Amino acid sequence: MGVVTDTDTGDALAMPTEKQVSIRLPESALARAEALVDVLAALPEYQAFRVERAVVLRIAVLRGLAELEREHGTAAATPKRRVKSTEAEARAFYLSQQRRAEREEKKRA
């Protein structure tokens, strides 16, 4: 269990070249993601940050892409990225959120 992580920065889920995208999902998929918010938020490794539906969907997309790449043996399956454990993923996400908050605070100052 893990998420694709940028090996250069160690950031999980908050990659330096991220872009916002808009996709349509069935209401049932959104309900499933919403149900996972409370489940993940209750786990110790996710208590370092606020779990929202967007976080659940981001994890699902990244894990799903990694699985599809492994399943189909695509060249994209061997990028300079690795799969981290859930605990390490949570820690990396927390640190990336801290760095992001520090950058935003510096911009405001």
Adjacency order of strands in the biggest sheet: 1-2
Please state roughly what percent of the residues sit in beta strands, choosing from under 5%, 5-15%, 15-25%, 25-35%, 35-45% or over 45%: 5-15%
Biggest pleated sheet:
2 strands, antiparallel
How many strands? 2
- Uncertain runs are 1-11
Give the proportion of residues in helices: 40-55%
Encode the helix/strand succession as letters. EHHEH
Globular, elongated, flat, extended or rod-shaped: what is the shape?
globular
Measured distance between first and last alpha carbons? 39 Å
**Structural class label:** mainly alpha
Number of helices: 3
The pLDDT mean sits at 76
User: What's the structural domain tally?
Assistant: 1
What does this protein look like?
It is a single chain. With 109 residues, this protein is mainly alpha-helical. It is 54% helix and 6% strand. The chain has helices spanning 27-42, 53-72, 86-108; strands spanning 4-6, 81-83. A two-stranded antiparallel ribbon has the order 1-2. α1 (27-42) packs across α2. It is globular and about 45 Å long.
Summarize the structure.
With 109 residues, the protein is mainly alpha-helical.
Please give a handful of descriptors for the protein shown:
109 residues, 54% helix
Ordered list of secondary-structure elements with their pairings:
Layout: E1 4-6, H1 27-42, H2 53-72, E2 81-83, H3 86-108
